Amino acid sequence: MRGKQVSGKAMLILCIASFFAGSLFSTTSRTWSSTSTSLDGDDDQPNGGREAHPFPIVSKYHIHNHLDETANSKRAAALVTQTNCNDDHKRKLDEGKSGDDIMGEVAKTHQAIKSLDRTISTLEMELAAARASNQRMSSSSKFNPKRQKAFVVIGINTAFSSKKRRKSVRETWMPTGGELNKLEKEKGIVIRFVIGRSATPGGLLDRAIEAEEAEHNDFLRLNHVEGYHELSTKTRLYFTTAISIWDAEFYVKVDDDVHLNLGMLATTLARHRSKPRIYIGCMKSGPVLYQKGVKYHEPEYWKFGEEGNKYFRHATGQIYAISKDLAAYISTNLPILHRYANEDVSLGSWFIGLEVEHIDERSMCCATSPDCERMAQAGNVCVASFDWKCSGICNSVERMKDVHNSCGEGTGAVWNLDL
Questions:
Q1: In-domain check, residue 206
Q2: Which of 7, 127, 208, 416 has the most C-beta neighbours closer than 10 Å?
Q3: pLDDT tens, 39-64?
């Protein structure tokens, strides 16, 4: 019979299918005909306990070995997982703990730095003060290496043109010559005319003061150029120079046209000698004069508020006294103490922010006769007398003797003191 002709493509597919079928049959036959070790391993069995079985046999050893390997793998995997989890948890804890520790250390370091800054700042201030003190002491040691003990140093502010005023003071309330030295040694009361130098060193004015000093030996010379508008600077230098020479309990500044009773001054100061920071004088609070051209004009009036305001309380400039601690304060802080136009305002400004006791002592600003005379007759001798309208005794050269005779305490008052 003539059949249908089979295509080449079909023949190719049939050949490939036959090949795979043959391969599968061959493999299955070998598997099913293979022999294995018996399950119980009996040695009495023929062929050493091994016989052919129609099905493939897996030994107990292989089963147990496979189970052990599987269990071990699972345990290993679990151990690795647990280890990784523990490590991760520990790492997180360590990271948290490390963060807390770092913040704590940062805080401690910050506090340590702040404490160190405060210590350095304190040491710098102490060093600066020590250097300034050493400089002042080294300059003063050229004249007097050891400070002299005293109860009070009285500096009489004077000028080159005031020779007649100085003469009137020496002839009235101020001891001279041997009595001046005796007063200093026995009572601890030091009195000096305070003056600086002229704008032309070694000139006629300076030579005149040197000649007067050689005659009376009662001057305290300052390294300062004299001038009316430099009174605040002169005041700073006076206290600085005085405390470098004399170790006194009080330091007084008085003008050369004011009458002073030495005994009453010493008695008044002695009542306050146990107090550390004393500022004594006739306290006032005058208006701040902002108009240009007037006497006592204050160029820095704007610092005191609106126009028409008054100054803070301060002692009038004719006479005032400060205790040793305040003089030391001025000496230590000399370069940074601000100077206003008026000397008494400047002094008051240096103390306004300190723990200072302001004592308003009205006996330090008595009017001249008949007021001071009337008070003396009543037993209340004035410490100082002058005329307010003149900011001192009017015509003091001519009137100082009259005021002294009317308001003076008597020549023996200061010598009877027990200081």
A1: yes
A2: 208
A3: 444 444 444 444 444 334 444 444 44
